Amino acid sequence: MDGMRVKSCLSLAALAQGREITTIEGLAQGEELHPLQAAFIERDAFQCGYCTPGQIMSGVACISEGHAGSPQEIREWMSGNLCRCGAYDHIVAAIQDAASASGSVRGG
Ligand code: FES
Q1: Phi, psi angles (nearest 5°) of residue 107
Q2: Is residue 14 predicted with pLDDT exceeding 50?
Q3: Domain tally, the chain
Q4: 48 lies in which domain range?
């Protein structure tokens, strides 16, 4: 919402009025997937897919906020996004790939 990640399940709809909202459906550019969407496919970063929209939206923010410098940092900044299937290793790998491709990986 307005460029910040929010937990949609905990956000009142009335608070979204007049705000710019981006959802998973708005990430791709036409037929071209967002780099993190493509990395999720490449890395098999989902099983049932239930958590995937939230994981990707949070992962995009994690990268843009500069919190994708290491697997440990990614895990820390993605810690609110739960995956019942336990695809965490693949999710972290996909975020690392997309962060590297975007050049937003910091040292360490
Ligand atoms: S892929 Fe099933 S909950 Fe994450």
Answers
A1: -65, 150
A2: yes
A3: 1
A4: 8-102
pLDDT tens digits for range 55-94: 999 999 999 999 999 999 999 999 989 999 999 999 999 9
- Token output for 97: 């790939």
Domain assignment present for 56: yes
CATH classification at residue 14: 1.10.150.120
Distance 87 CA to ligand 1 centre (A): 7
Distance in Å, CA 30 to ligand 1 centroid: 25
Ligand 1 atom closest to 86 (CA):
4
Number of H helices, E strands in the chain: 4, 0
SS3 89: helix
Give the residue, out of 40, 43, 44, 52, with the most ligand 1 atoms within 8 A of its beta carbon, to mutate for a pocket test: 52
With a Cβ cut-off of 6 Å, ligand 1 is lined by 46-52, 83-85, 87
